Amino acid sequence: MSKKQLYTLEYPVRCSPTILYEFLSTPSGLQEWFADKVDERDGVFNFSWNGSNDTAKVIEREEEKYIRFHWSHAPAEEYFEFRIEKSEVTNQTILVIKDFAEKREIKDQSMLWDYQVKDLFHRLGN
């Protein structure tokens, strides 16, 4: 099995970090754009899509800055992360997504994130 590698995607977003963080870190926010149904208990999120389920544990977070999840089925060093940054030049809010994928799958995974982030932006009124 080939080793997955970390890749990063950046999306400029027109909304406050406070509002964006809610969509990235709460079950109700994630359910708006990331999964069909989301529940959380003791830092473990259960995600449902079209009848399939997956769980991810919050391994790091800083309010209004970032949240990092670890899929229960993934190797220990892998994670996915939503980070909120401010552009030094334009002062614009930037959503940074970090995830792992096999090299040949990064393009497809990036397109999937693009699709989901478009749904997030729709919910945010962007």
UniProtKB/TrEMBL annotation:
InterPro entries for this protein: START-like_dom_sf, START_2
**Superkingdom of this protein's organism:** Bacteria
Q: Which residues form the START-like domain?
A: 1-125
Instruction: Please report a single Pfam family linked to this protein.
Output: START_2
- The name of this protein is START-like domain-containing protein
